[in-house]
Amino acid sequence: MIKKIFIIFLTLAFISYGKEIKLKSIHIENLPDTYKEVFREFFFKNFHIKEETSSKNKLKVNISWTGLSYTVCFHFLFFDKKERISCFTAQTGEEFYEKFFDILEEYKKTEPKTKTVDLTIKSENNPEKNKIKISSEKRDVLVGYKSTKHLKNSKKKPLVEGVINIDTLYLKDKEAAKLLKFLLKGNKIRQILIIK
Hints:
The chain is of the alpha/beta class. The protein folds into two domains: 19-107, Double Stranded RNA Binding Domain, CATH 3.30.160; 115-195, no CATH class. Helices cover 25% and strands 39% of the residues. The protein contains four helices and twelve strands. The strands form two sheets. The protein has a seven-stranded mixed beta sheet with strand order 9-6-12-8-7-11-10, covered by helices on one side. A five-stranded mixed beta sheet has the order 2-1-3-4-5, covered by helices on one side. A hairpin with a 4-residue loop joins β3 (58-65) and β4. α2 (35-46) runs parallel beside α4 (173-183).
């Protein structure tokens, strides 16, 4: 009986080790520097990806904003010297969550779960349109156009604070990273609630 349990334990350990991959680097371009740590934490929490591991399999991640969309590429370098590159594009940061799980399916340690929520933001400016999008100061689009609703005398705590210019809420780097982290928890935005 003990021998049987030991064999099962070794098998599970082998399977777990086989899934593990070492994060060699994350390179971001035309994006706030604050994003890098958010992505790193997300990968470590949801996938069998580590910086300190004896695994011979390695991963390099490149994430950039091209002016119209995000381009994300995963460069896998395996112990047998084989390589694989998997890429995707995303119009907004809201698309990251599910697309990351699609590409890294074999390494996941949690199941993806999405939910639709209202996003509360703070701004002293009023939008000139009924819908606004949310961008960092680097102009990458975290949240695409959503309907807005003004809240008066609200006790709701805003997730982020920024400046609205016509139809776009611009966020400073730290605020943008805060919103990115929120989106990488599987949150999909239904509408944007504005408080002053």
